[in-house]
Amino acid sequence: MANTSYETVFAEFKDKITDPDLITFAEELQTEMLTAYMKKAIGKCKRVIKTVDLSNRDDELMQFGVEIPDEVMDIITEWMTVFWLEPFVNNIENLRNNLSTKDFSVFSPANLLEKIGDRYDTSYKRARSITNEYSYIIADMKGLKSWLM
Q: Is the pTM for the entire model greater than 0.85?
């Protein structure tokens, strides 16, 4: 059984987004940002993911002590996308542009803010959906009692 490196998680995440600015950051800053997104994502879904110990990781070696299955990787990286989008949605400059513009054209800041918000909502709903789906698939039904009894 192989360990999963943080870099593997980061590569999966980068495949989901398009951020030309991210590659311009120093590698250390990129790693710091992506690690923060990953830890937030793990915090959001670790209660549901019981088949993999996501706390079994080494931040110095930058790897998990376990292999992360594909479906769990998808959940983590989808939540990372949600946290990556949050600053765009909460950007005060986008809000100022939205409030001060009178010309609402196809390329207006208001339209941009709406589209970013829509993308955030879509990403959030997808992350919740795949997390819930995973929890139903791996649910332990042995301990449940039938309500018919």
A: no
Q: Quick count: other Cβ atoms within 10 Å of Cβ 3?
A: 15
With tokens 């990372």, the residue in question is: 80
pLDDT tens figures, 21-58: 888 899 999 999 999 999 999 998 888 888 899 999 99
Q: Count of CB atoms within 10 A of residue 9's CB?
A: 24
Alpha carbon of residue 60 to chain centroid? 22
CA–CA gap between residue 121 and residue 55 (Å, rounded): 28
Q: Are 80 and 41 in contact (CB under 8 A)?
A: yes
DSSP letter assigned to residue 68 = P
Report whether 67 contacts 56 (CB < 8 A).
no
Side-chain-side CA neighbours of 142 within 13 Å: the count stands at 2
End-to-end CA distance of the chain: 42
Number of H helices, E strands in the chain: 5, 2
